[in-house]
Design goal:
Two copies of one chain form a homodimer. With 359 residues, chain A is of the alpha/beta class. Helix content of chain A is 40%, strand content 16%. Among the domains of chain A are: 72-167, Response regulator (Rossmann fold, 3-Layer(aba) Sandwich), CATH 3.40.50.2300; 172-320 and 343-348, 3-Layer(aba) Sandwich (Rossmann fold), CATH 3.40.50. In chain A, strand 3, helix 7 (139-149) and strand 4 form a beta-alpha-beta unit. The structure holds a DNA duplex (30 and 30 nucleotides).
Chain lengths: 359, 359
Amino acid sequence: MASPIEGQARPIRLADIAKAAGVSHGTASNVFSRPEIVRQEVRERVKAVAEAMGYAGPDPKGRLLRAGKVNAIGVGTTEPLSYFFEDPFARVMMAGISQACDATGAGIALVSAQNDEKLAWNIQSALVDGFILFCIEGGPRLVELTRERRLPFVALAIGFDDDTISMIGIDNVAGSRLAARHLGELGHRRFAVLSLPFVDDSTGLVTPERLGTALYTATRDRLAGYFEELSRFGIDTNKVPVYETGNEETSTKAGLETIFAGAEPPTAILAMSDRMALIAIEWLTARGLKVPEDVSIVGFDGVPEGALCDPPLTTIAQPIAEIGRRAARMILDYDGAVRRETMGVELVVRASTGPAPRT
Amino acid sequence: MASPIEGQARPIRLADIAKAAGVSHGTASNVFSRPEIVRQEVRERVKAVAEAMGYAGPDPKGRLLRAGKVNAIGVGTTEPLSYFFEDPFARVMMAGISQACDATGAGIALVSAQNDEKLAWNIQSALVDGFILFCIEGGPRLVELTRERRLPFVALAIGFDDDTISMIGIDNVAGSRLAARHLGELGHRRFAVLSLPFVDDSTGLVTPERLGTALYTATRDRLAGYFEELSRFGIDTNKVPVYETGNEETSTKAGLETIFAGAEPPTAILAMSDRMALIAIEWLTARGLKVPEDVSIVGFDGVPEGALCDPPLTTIAQPIAEIGRRAARMILDYDGAVRRETMGVELVVRASTGPAPRT
DNA sequence: CATTATTCTTGGATCGATTCAAATTTCCGC
DNA sequence: GCGGAAATTTGAATCGATCCAAGAATAATG
């Protein structure tokens, strides 16, 4: 790479200062890292020399190797880096992580495992003390990659079973039951489910035989919770359309088209993410259907956007920021143990749900 | 029998693998970093040994010292780390930076210079190849701190003059003139300005003699642009109240109280940030004043929130993401030169401005 | 003033890799 | 089986610091 402005090549090292000041490198080091044990006269002389030579202070690169600790947490995902700043869920989570890091003075390094080996800065090469993983998609690969690094890590939003890794999750079954019960109590009897992916890159109406087969446990558990509760209201869950989406606009809208194409369209939608619920509200409104007068919707996650949209979204709120905080602390206070925490969720009733329309 | 420190299994080093496989460090190193130059048989043997011993691969810490390059950009601010995820302006900027980093495979490290020396991970110790600085507040200190590190850096949103550092800014005068002209053309004649800070931690109505004295050039330039254009409409700028805020809720609302306490309240507000403009809309609405029927407002920045609020905000849009992208590239392609770029801005007319009410 | 206690300073070892010139092997054609 | 080119491997040097046991200098005490 190009050398700094000056023609002179190498930056000044601690050893150069030591030589110029006529002390050993040990003493020179102490001047910067433990000044109190150096005699004042010497300390001042060395500092003066350093100043005069334009020494930038002990290089963290060298210090790191010796100390072994970076003092930073890596946050990894398979999405591109901009995901951290654009996705509402990620943003709230990151804010929580930030708070814990601020409190202890640790730094945050963002890592994308999008195209793996190709990147100069990736899970394998990131200079961090541990990882927090957003296992949105491609979770298994991300976990595998990170495991090889042999650093402490916590998996969040993890969608698959693996008892050997630390993770912080939520009670998906309880959450989806809350959602379904809420709608059931409002009198709804015709439902549709907008589902998160069963496996990567698969979308479409889910056939009955695939219903129990979701690879991702989050999907499976939420579906189970919905159905469990719907059954209690006497609903035949085999008749409830479940549309698998990629949690983005195109497939979600395709799902809505499909769901509302039938003769008896649902009066209530159970969406496995706020993202989908928000898209659904937009789609329904554009189509002239009123929320919640014609169709009620319950989301899942509890992102801030849900409170701001029109109508405000009824949802199952995760303690997103708290999860972030705990994850960060897990890495910061790592003690070698595998920790698994399940956080509670709560139903937040806003205006996207109302009584079932009278037929 | 067992080695002295049995409990603390020291992580396996490359040298351990080399010894176990019966090759030199040089060869062992090549197996991982330049496998093509190692004979296949040897390569496989070494890899097998590494696998068997549970070697995590070459430690980036060691590699770093040798290579000298971290492959990551540090983004610094005087705010807490959560600022990056909570502030709309910062988020869009970070998304731009992320895109440039994704494209080249670089990583991002977040650095807060909030309480300086105290933190384990700060401007002095962050492992990065260069810095992008958000000079929101305490800019001078942040720049000074970073300068000492002697790494390439770019200052963004910088509010003060210093020709010796690289920066990317916007044409503040042109932007504020656009805002003022827009309102002037709509027939407004009674104005008020919600100003960014003149100096840190100062708020309140600005006395005429202080008007030209803002330490921050962004504030000074925007004010100059407003006044220049207002004069062309024959407005006596000495009579235009300018209220200095901290760009947050409390002082902005205090400013509004003051501004609207007079006998002849303004029909148009020039806000130096969208943040303030949004707060103003909320405040006015709560007070029963209609925007834009009673009062028109023009913001500054062009954050996404401005398009979503009610009414949508007319504003001077900066190319925020593009600034982020350029800043990242400046660091990534650093060549030792000081670069200073000024980006254009544009007036985005939405619904927060309308014709002046008839008196 | 000698002796002991105390405070500083020294220089080698270490952290974990990569690099490169030199030494060694292997490969070929004859 | 030999000479020389090509392919591999070696091992010392380097990156930039911190740590620590041991030695040197200074201060305190009898």
